[in-house]
Give the backbone structure.
Amino acid sequence: MFAFIVRRIIQAIVVMMIVGLIGFAVKNNIGDPVRDMVGERVSVAEREALRDKLGLNDPFVTQYFRFLKNALKGDLGISYFHNKPTIEVIAAKAPATLELVFATALIILLVSLPVGVYSAIFPKSWFSRITMGLSTIGVSVPVFLTAIVFIYIFGVELHWLPSYGRGETVDIYGWESGFFTIDGLLHLILPSIALSSIMLPLFIRLIRSEMMEVLETEYIKFAWAKGLHRKRIYMVHAFKNTLLPVVTVFGVEIGILFAFTILTETVFQWQGMGFMFLEAVERSDTALLVAYLVVVGAIFVVVNTVVDIIYGFINPMVRIAGTK
Amino acid sequence: MAPLLEVENLNVKFALRFGELTAIDGVSFTLARREKLGLVGESGAGKSVTGFAIINLLSKPGYISGGKIIFQGQRLDNLSDEAMRDIRGNRISMIFQDPMMTLNPVLTIGVQMAETVLAHHKVSKAEAMAIALAKLKKVYIPSPEERLRQYPHECSGGMRQRIVIAIALLTDPALIIADEPTTALDVTIQADIMDLMVELCASEDMGLILITHDLAVVSQVTEKIAVMYAGKIIESGPTADIIHTPRHPYTQGLIQAIPGRSDAGRRLNQIPGMMPTLTDIPDGCAFHPRCDLAADVCQRETPLLRSADNENRLVACHRISLNN
């Protein structure tokens, strides 16, 4: 198991270096930092001198490793609009996005697991049929439309829920959290439901079809032949095997959720990283864009590595493979 | 003394969209205490369906449409789900064909054994584990304590089938139904497993229904044989009689097809044609299209199972009746 974890972490580091390379290549090719700094009036000779001093004339590889070294120290450049280190700008926005994604992931898990399992065990019940029908619709409606419809119904017409911003937040060691105030939680409801709408139907279908497949296997038949109680067959024998592929997909989908936050945060004026990203695009804040890319890449890699390690704990066969 | 198991005129049907298919048509047999019966036939003859019908574990859309199953004086075919569950894996155990598929890959062997005991007896987990350990010793598993903590993929195929047999023994059943227990194993291990089962039936005071297509195996193990064809028993009797003086042309064909019966270098004897599928079972005797001796009456009338030679021998063939 230990060898397996070490191997996964090494893989994660390699992936991060590649993400860094892409980020650096973008930074290196878009815009001219010298011009950004000094404007048009400085002479060519002076610019060259500045380029040398900043190391911009060094070979690509040297610059790349300098970029990596700085990134490791948490230095991903200066945001040209905010005039602050990009990492600080992102750190200020990250809690909003992380909380949104966390709440969304929670909704997806809490709804898709029971619904998926139920509709696999009773595929012909009316509940399963309705769920399957709705999930087809759910998959095909884009998240920004769901968001706007939600705002219209629950915010504008019914006045039940707040439809923009994060509401009241609490500062916990620099982490601005909306989890601890009623107002913050109320503000979280619409955005997280809207964001979950894209993945939820997918997960219900995935869990249902995996579970149905597992229920047909010989070992489930044998479990019945052993005279086990229905509950144990479904909840232990079938469920654990159903989880294996679901856990893997979940890891990838959480990463994709971060991408979808860009739309959701914009619609709900949610002051997170996605919202910041769109602002940065409008302002051509290259340094901030690259920093966003690297940070989101890092989150993606960390989530996937953690999920893979969790997978290793549920699936005994992975553990054996890892020790070899 | 009442027999261990009586199956009377068992009928099994599969309810399909386009109508009902008869899988088992009027199968009857009895099994005395400690008696071993071989249920023989080609694939699709209904051997396994008969086995699963006894423990009421037919996969949907199959159901018992008629007949009686009486086990230790108790009707099984009309029992409640819960009462039937407590018989399954408790008083009647089943052994499946492929040990690579019958054990749940994500649960340890100890868990899969202990849960069977716990499903039927009010004992503690530790006591259940102790019973599991004792049964592993009975099937000659090396280092049984260690096995309890292992996962199925850490054991070889032969080892797994021993574990499955140990699971079948956990609750000291009166009857074991073994569905092709050695078919998926190496030839060298087949004999070991068969010997083990014969030994255990004697020492543990159990009856056995051995479902197989392999007449050679049955001839060494069981006291009685019932040959099935297209959902019916077409010949039954004491093993030695059936092997030495088969009466039904189909049984004769099966025995001639045993490899050891042909001269070296010559083609193996075989029965021409294939078992009919359930959708187009021929009129009259289902075997007549493949039978060398078929007469006109065979195409029109279904032969009934009648005694031939003595009351223990039953044969369903017009030729036998005609000759008498």
